[in-house]
Amino acid sequence: MNRITVGDYAPDFVLKDNRGEEIRLSDYKGKKVLLSWHPLAWTRVCAEQMKALEANLAEFEKHNVVPLGLSIDSYPCKNAWAKELGIAQVKLLADFWPHGEIAGKYGLFRTPEGFSERANVLVGEDGKVLWVKTYDIPELPDIAEVFNQIKNR
After folding, report:
1. Which residue from 122, 82, 77, 100 is spatially nearest to 15, judged by alpha carbons?
2. Active site residue 46
3. What is 59-95 written as a DSSP string?
4. How far apart are alpha carbons 39 and 72 in whole angstroms?
5. Average pLDDT in the 115-121 region?
């Protein structure tokens, strides 16, 4: 599947978050949404990526942005991980079953490894993609760059 690009409508989805609640992308119409994809829970760079979302939640809210962390891990796994990391507010979504289906719809599923790319996808208030960036798996996304993209769109 082709990678999602700027100007595309972001595919809607319903995924369980780390608390077992169903989260629907379309419920956030009128807000920007940062879909922050990380390959696997319980890994160092992924942990730092998700902790940066939580640490900067007030700044996201100031810009009318909802940050969501996504990976192919199950929601019980994401729940235990969130507790371990001290993530109390940011929702960590489980693209667990069908395995990686939503990552696939966004063109971000790495079939040989069975997990998603490390990527940020910024979705606008109208559901259109404003920014997409993929990173090398060991690379930690720069939160300052994320905010620069948010402020310029």
Report:
1. 100
2. yes
3. HHHHTTEEEEEEESS-HHHHHHHHHHHT--SSEEEE-
4. 7
5. 98
Per-residue tokens: 93: 């979504």
pTM of the entire predicted model: 0.97
**What are the angstrom distances between the C-alpha of 91 and each of 3, 75, 138?**
24, 11, 23
Torsion of CA 140, 26, 56, 110, to 10 degrees: -10
For residue 30, the Cα-to-chain-centroid distance in whole angstroms is 18
Q: Which two tokens stand for residue 34?
A: 């940062």
Q: Can you tell me which residue has the tokens 């940011």?
A: 90
Which of these is catalytic: 46, 66, 103, 129? 46
For 105-115, the pLDDT digits (tens) are 999 999 999 99
Structure tokens at 82: 């969130």
Q: Given CA atoms 150, 138, 51, 121 in this order, what sign does their dihedral have?
A: positive
Strands 91-94 and 14-17: what pairing?
A: antiparallel
Residue 128 backbone phi and psi in degrees, to 5: -90, 145
